[in-house]
TrEMBL record, chains A, B:
Pfam families (alphabetical): LacI, Peripla_BP_4
The UniProt record lists the keyword DNA-binding: yes
Family annotation (InterPro entries): HTH_LacI (IPR000843), Lambda_DNA-bd_dom_sf (IPR010982), Peripla_BP_I (IPR028082), SBP_2_dom (IPR025997)
Keywords attached to this entry: DNA-binding, Transcription, Transcription regulation
Keyword DNA-binding among record annotations: yes
Protein name: Substrate-binding domain-containing protein
Length: 337, 337
DNA sequence: TTGAAAGCGCTAACAT
DNA sequence: ATGTTAGCGCTTTCAA
């Protein structure tokens, strides 16, 4: 290694102290004299000493790093969540490692495996839309490995969760469409396996009922990959084109943008005058065409809370945490033509 | 540690072998008998053994992880580069750690520091638009620490680089505008510190010349934070509104979308009929309004090549690599109204 | 072909 | 207040 660092030993030798004294001085232990601390710290600074986290991790069985698993960082919602996570992780000196599943259950479990094997101190994750096997996660959690779920969470697992008030968000979006005069509102959503989709579906139904509109199976289209494959959205669009709907509520970031793209690609198939309300945290909604009403999640806040819960859990060695589920608010934003 | 893993020792004890034999068997050493290998590997699989990379790293002085530094992952261009990097890193069993600078030089050096201290095997980075001090990077490189630069690269540093054919991309974009009949083409660009901006400016000038159009200082507006702050774009817009330009070439992802957003925000200030050509890798360009012509970079490919170069360098212990600069092609894509 | 022993850099009992 | 020692889990001489 040509770019070798100074080690504790080096400093100890140079200062004629023992490595343990140096270690303690560096970590400001109370059992070290003021003079020694000054001596050590000055020297350390001079030679630009950095503790080796690999060695430290091996010793204290901690890596001071946490893993994040999301479907893809290109999704604005997730990149905002990541920003939130980083804001607390960095403050507490944890490194964050991001992994993408691209909605593949296999990649997801591989990443969990990797994170576990690499001695991550804990994991923050939003499930892939494909996942249906929670067995291995259950095991991990049972064995005390800290995991906090956010956004897309597995109900059956007993671990802290941070989610959005999906039902309310959906309800308000559909209510808004109804207020605009829509009498037959379609719904485009993703996999039935996703917790948030199901909650949004519930909100959709509730709002229909509140407006004395009938719930019709054929007005609801599912995209199993959450729109990661544009073809599934295009198929849904062609299906929907057979129905006479006059408003549409869309359940996810990728689906919302995908719907707009499909409208463009098949002009005349579905009128772009039909009002659209959709979940999206894209920061480009204002330049979308046609204009839409966006249901925005508190993404940054979600990342923040999830990270806080995780680090609490990591640092509360042993003490079983309460497995609460935190619910964050949504907001509707309208964009004029 | 409640969620303890099996260790080499555990396996050795269970199989009545020595840890060294187990270690060798697991890594398929030629000096281990076929039978022992089978025995060990079967058992390892059974108990779901994973080597502890922390311990291994401490021993072999390698962490099998590489750091990525970009301004922000929300930027589609960078998220595509990251995808490219991951595609080769995972294949070679390296973990990737992503850090965002948000265009801050301070955060950038902090991240480099952190990566170095955490024994990353190497770094892949695109400079922040604020960076002007390359001293510490120079030192690191001198000491043999592997760094590969991409997209926004420091000319003065002697390290491998992967960039886009910016000059050509700019030239073609401006040529296209000229072909559309534009006689006075403005240019919106980012910091003068960024290598790619300067190359694009050169391409812009060249194309103007080729079309016998005069280069005018006042038609070129700089945004020091690359549009990360929307206000700087809005200011540029107000400045530009004073000029009679009939076409605009924009030099970056964030700037391109920011320009469109500013157009929306200040209707009437600048006609949205004025043709726009801009660098962007957004995968939502087709639903932007107004429509634009996009200059697309080979982002995925860039990540791939950069990662390959870095891993080559990491694994070519000592042997000084050739410090080539690789140039990747761009393509123009037009979107109809 | 296998094992014993040392050591990567650090921390934490346990001395002193 | 400081030092000694052992050991985290792994790899790697060196010896058998």
């Amino acid at each position: 290694m040509t770019y070798a660092h100074y080690t504790l030993k080096d400093i100890a030798k140079a200062l004629k102290l023992s490595p343990s004294t140096v270690s303690r001085a560096l970590r400001d232990s109370h059992e070290i004299s003021k003079e020694t601390k000054v001596l050590v710290n000055d020297f350390a600074k001079k030679v630009n000493y950095r503790v080796n986290p690999i060695a430290r991790g091996l010793k204290v069985r901690k890596s001071f790093s946490i893993g994040i698993i999301v479907s893809e960082i290109a999704n604005n919602f997730f990149s905002q969540v990541v920003d939130g996570i980083e804001s607390v992780a960095y403050a507490k000196n944890y490194q964050v490692v991001i992994a993408q599943t691209k909605e593949s259950a296999e990649r997801e479990s591989l990443h969990v495996e990797q994170f576990y094997a690499r001695s991550m101190d804990g994991i923050l994750m939003a499930m892939s839309s494909e996942t249906h096997n929670y067995e291995y996660l259950h095991d991990l959690i049972q064995r005390g490995f800290p995991i906090v779920f956010f956004d897309r969470v597995p109900q059956q697992l007993n671990s802290p969760k941070v989610i959005t008030d999906n039902k309310k968000g959906a309800y308000e979006a559909v209510q808004y469409l109804a207020n605009q005069g829509c009498k037959r509102i379609a719904h485009l959503t993703s996999s039935k396996k996703l917790s948030n989709s199901m909650e949004r579906l519930a909100g959709y139904k509730l709002a229909l009922m509140a407006n004395h509109q009938e719930y019709e199976e054929k007005l609801v289209k599912y995209c199993d990959y959450g729109g990661l494959q544009q073809t599934e959205i295009e198929e849904a669009l062609h299906e929907l084109a057979k129905e006479q709907f006059d408003g549409i509520f869309i359940s996810g970031d990728r689906l919302t943008t995908g719907y707009l793209q499909a409208l463009k690609k098949f002009p005349g198939l579905i009128s772009d005058q039909i009002p659209i309300a959709g979940f999206t945290n894209s920061d480009l909604v204002d330049i979308f065409s046609p204009s839409i009403t966006a249901v925005r999640q508190s993404a940054f806040e979600m990342g923040k809370r999830a990270a806080e819960l995780l680090i609490e859990q990591i640092e509360a060695k042993g003490a079983k945490p309460e497995y609460q589920t935190e619910v964050l608010p949504v907001s509707l934003i309208h964009f004029a033509e």
